[in-house]
C-alpha cells in the first residue's frame, strides 16, 4: 500500500465555482478525516467518516461544504460557491479502528480561490 | 472546550543536540490521547508518537520521547541527537476518547543548525 493519496494536488478556481477533491485512504483503514489547514495554523477538523457513515461534522463547517464516502473507501469533499476565504490546504487522513488512533495523512490539495 | 497551545513559534537547535518542544492542552474529558506530528516543507504530516492519558510511563519512539505531566496538562516532545532532517513544523494534537475529533496546536517550526 502506498499510503493516503489525494487528487488533485493543486486547484485554482474562480470565486463562485464549485470544486471537488478526492481522497483515497489506506485500504484497510475504515476511519477517514478531512481537515483544512491555513498558513501558520494547525489542521482544523472538518468531518469524520467511519466506513460510509459521516459521524461527525465541525460546527464551523459552512453548508457550502459537503463530503461523501459512498462505499466506505474513497471520499470526496465538495465546496460549492467558493469564496476567497476557502483558500487553504485540504488534508485527508485515515486510521485503523484497531489502532491507538494515529492518523496517516495524504499530501493535501492546495486550493486557491481567485 | 478543547484547546492545544504551542507557545514556541520557532526553535533552533544545534545538530546532535537535544531539543524540547512544548505543548499544553486543556480538556474536561478524563480520558484522551495525545499525539505529535511532523510536517516537513513537502507538506505531508507524519505521525511521531502517542501518549494515552492513563499511561503510567512516558512514551518513547526511537529518538522521540514524550514528557507527559498530567497534572500540568503538558505533553512536551523531546527529540534527542537532532539531525538536519528534523527541520520541520511540529504539531501537538489531542483526541478526547469520548469523540473522534482531533484538536491541533498552531505548531512549532524547528530548524536544525549544522
Fold and architecture overview:
- The complex is a heterodimer of chains A (114) and B (114).
- With 114 residues, chain A is mainly β.
- Chain A has no helices and 11 strands.
- Chain A has strands at residues 5-7, 10-13, 19-24, 31-37, 44-50, 53-57, 65-68, 75-79, 88-95, 104-105, 109-113.
- In chain A, strands 2, 4, 5, 6, 9, 10 and 11 form a 7-stranded mixed beta sheet that branches.
- The mean pLDDT of chain A is 92.
- Chain B has 114 residues and is mostly beta strands.
- Chain B has no helices and 12 strands.
- Chain B has strands at 3-5, 10-14, 19-21, 24-26, 32-39, 46-52, 60-61, 64-69, 74-79, 88-96, 103-104, 108-113.
- In chain B, the strands form 3 sheets. In chain B, strands 2, 5, 6, 10, 11 and 12 form a 6-stranded mixed beta sheet that branches. In chain B, strands 3-9-8-7 form a 4-stranded antiparallel beta sheet, with no helix packed on it. A two-stranded antiparallel ribbon of chain B has the order 1-4.
Short account of what is shown:
Chain A is built from no helices and eleven strands. With 114 residues, chain A is mainly beta. In chain B, strands 2, 5, 6, 10, 11 and 12 form a six-stranded mixed sheet that branches.
Layout of helices and strands:
The complex is a heterodimer of chains A (114) and B (114).
Chain A: E1 5-7, E2 10-13, E3 19-24, E4 31-37, E5 44-50, E6 53-57, E7 65-68, E8 75-79, E9 88-95, E10 104-105, E11 109-113
Parallel strand pairs in A: 2-11
Antiparallel strand pairs in A: 1-3, 3-8, 4-5, 4-9, 5-6, 7-8, 9-10, 9-11
Chain B: E1 3-5, E2 10-14, E3 19-21, E4 24-26, E5 32-39, E6 46-52, E7 60-61, E8 64-69, E9 74-79, E10 88-96, E11 103-104, E12 108-113
Parallel strand pairs in B: 2-12
Antiparallel strand pairs in B: 1-4, 3-9, 5-6, 5-10, 7-8, 8-9, 10-11, 10-12
Amino acid at each position: 500500500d502506498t499510503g493516503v493519496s489525494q487528487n488533485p494536488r493543486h486547484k485554482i478556481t474562480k470565486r463562485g465555482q464549485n470544486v471537488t477533491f478526492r481522497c483515497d485512504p489506506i485500504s484497510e483503514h475504515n476511519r477517514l478525516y478531512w481537515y483544512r489547514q491555513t498558513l501558520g495554523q494547525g489542521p482544523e477538523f472538518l468531518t469524520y467518516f467511519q466506513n460510509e457513515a459521516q459521524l461527525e461534522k465541525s460546527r464551523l463547517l459552512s453548508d457550502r461544504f459537503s463530503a461523501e464516502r459512498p462505499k466506505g473507501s474513497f471520499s470526496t469533499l465538495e465546496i460549492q460557491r467558493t469564496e476567497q476565504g476557502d483558500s487553504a490546504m485540504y488534508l485527508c487522513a485515515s486510521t485503523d479502528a484497531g489502532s491507538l488512533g494515529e492518523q496517516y495523512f495524504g499530501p493535501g490539495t492546495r486550493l486557491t480561490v481567485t | 472546550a478543547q484547546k492545544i497551545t504551542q507557545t514556541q513559534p520557532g526553535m533552533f537547535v544545534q545538530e546532535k543536540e537535544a531539543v524540547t518542544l512544548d505543548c499544553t492542552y486543556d480538556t474536561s474529558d478524563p480520558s484522551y490521547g495525545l499525539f505529535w506530528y511532523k510536517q516537513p516543507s513537502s507538506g505531508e504530516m507524519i505521525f511521531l508518537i502517542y501518549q494515552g492519558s492513563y499511561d503510567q510511563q512516558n512514551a518513547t519512539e526511537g529518538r522521540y520521547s514524550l514528557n507527559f505531566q498530567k497534572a500540568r496538562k503538558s505533553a512536551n516532545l523531546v527529540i534527542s541527537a537532532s539531525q538536519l532532517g528534523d527541520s520541520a513544523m511540529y504539531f501537538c494534537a489531542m483526541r478526547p476518547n469520548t469523540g473522534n475529533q482531533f484538536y491541533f496546536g498552531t505548531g512549532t517550526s524547528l530548524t536544525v543548525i549544522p
